[in-house]
Structures are given as structure tokens and as C-alpha cells.
Amino acid sequence: MRQNSSPTTIDFMILVLLSLIWGTSYILIKKGLEVFSPAQVATLRLGISALALAPFAFRHLKKISRKDVPLLMLIGITGTGLPSFLFPFAQTELSSSLTGMLSGLTPLCTFLIAWLFFKSRDAGKRQLTGVVLGLVGAGLLAWAAPGQAGQTTQFAYAGFILLACFCYATSSNLVAAYFKEMPSLTITVTSFFLVGVPALIWALTAGAVLETAAMEVDGKGWWALTYVAALALFSTVLASIIFFKMVQRTGAIFSSMVSYIIPLVALSWGLLDGEGIGLWQIPAIVLVLTGVFLSRGK
């Protein structure tokens, strides 16, 4: 473990790779939604992720004691389950680039949860200023976003993204508080498996995802299935493994820089796909990232 060493060129390459993979998830969700419903996208993502982790499941699940299962289930629901539904539902009205930019609030939400409920962070003027700036920036992002939805609708669906950010924040704080000594891969495999297996069963039965894909002409349904599979395998499973490896190599502070790059990647993909960007969204994302930076200060 090289946690106390200065980041190397390889570490920066890993950081960029992870940002590209995670930042691409929003455009993949958008492509999946061209055929599938939000619930189908979510359950497919969870189910395929569980299948990908199945080879590791037995070895890691046997390390879990029964008393830890309820809390690990909660971690799985908040860190994986609910966000997998919230993002596709939000993207029925919001662009992929706006969704990616709003997801930059996750570190700020993590700080708030840690301060309010876990008492693991102190809040001074700098941190509270960061919180205010981040929330103002998020509101401005939703207000200034171009699109067919009205401003009230934009704010409502932006609320789904904010809720997803708080879900991620709750999950990471639970892990830090109760499972600090448990191997991160064990937590990942267990949480994905607990929520992914039921999701896969629903997707293949009541969700009828294969039937939906087969009904589309010109292979569009199978392309959508490919996009969601890529979302699960790369932007979910592989990204989680890379992130944990990066934390082991460089520590949490350097690894957290990914939060500043992901919104830019999402914005780039959105522009390439023909999405517009409002004039006020540029200063808005600067406000969000400044708020995140200040909330992490000493």
C-alpha cells in the first residue's frame, strides 16, 4: 500500500480513466432510456452487476456475520439500489450532462451527513459557506438548464439527483462508521449481491426486459441492452474496483479529485450528443465545485 506516497504518473492516469468511466454513465443511461423504462434500466444495471460479481460472491459472503446483514443491506440500498432508480427517473426530464453536473454534489452531501448524524466532521465557516455555495449552484444549474421541461419540473427532477447524492453519502458514512476494517471488495460484492439478485429476477420476469428489447426494430433494443450492460460492467463494477484500488494506492484525498472531473466528462458527452448548455450553467457548475472544495477544507 502506497497511501503516504506522492501520486505518480500512473496514479494520475488511473484518476483520469476512472473519471472517464464514471462520467460516461449518464450518457449510457440516456441511451438505455431510448428503449427501456427507468425501472428496467435500474434493475438491469443492478442485475448485470450482480452477475458480474457472482464468481466472487461465495468467497466474500461467507465472511459476513448474520448481525452485519441488515446494515450491509442498508448500504446496498442507499449506495446502489435507490440511486440506480433515481438517476434514470431524473433523466426522463433532465439531460445527461445536467445530471452529471448535479452529481458533483455527492462530496458535499457526504460532508453534511457526516456532520449532522455521525459527528465525524467539524463544520466551520469555510465548510458551511461551501454547503451554501454548492446548493445555490445546484439550484442555478436546474433553473438555467435548457430543455422542454418547465422550471418547476426541472427543479423537481433535480431533487431526484440530490436525493441520490444523499443516498451515496449515507452509504459511504455507514461504511466509514461501522465497516472500517472490512475489506472494501467484500462490502462491494455483498451490497451488490443483496440488491442485485432480486433486481435481476424482476427484470427477467415482471420487467420483461428481453421482450422489450426484442420488440424494437433494426436491433435498437439490443443496442440499448448493450448500453445498459456497459453501464453495469464498466461504470458500476469496474469503476468500483478501480476506485478502491486508487484509494489503497494514494489515499482518500487524492482519490476524491474524481468528483471534480466527472461533471466535466458528463458535460462533454452531452455536448457531443447534441445537448444544449445554458449560459448560466457554466458559473453554476463553478459554484458547485467551489462549494465541494470549501466543504472539504480543514
UniProtKB/TrEMBL annotation:
The chain crosses the membrane at residues 12-29, 35-58, 70-90, 96-118, 130-149, 155-179, 191-210, 222-244, 251-271, 277-295. It holds the Pfam family EamA. It is a multi-pass membrane protein. Its main location: membrane. One of its GO terms (cellular component) is membrane. It comes from the Bacteria. Residues 14-141, 160-295 form the EamA domain. It is found in: Membrane. Keywords: Membrane, Transmembrane, Transmembrane helix. SUPFAM superfamilies: Multidrug resistance efflux transporter EmrE. PANTHER family: EAMA DOMAIN-CONTAINING PROTEIN, INNER MEMBRANE TRANSPORTER. Belongs to the EamA transporter family. This is EamA-like transporter family protein. It comes from Neolewinella agarilytica.
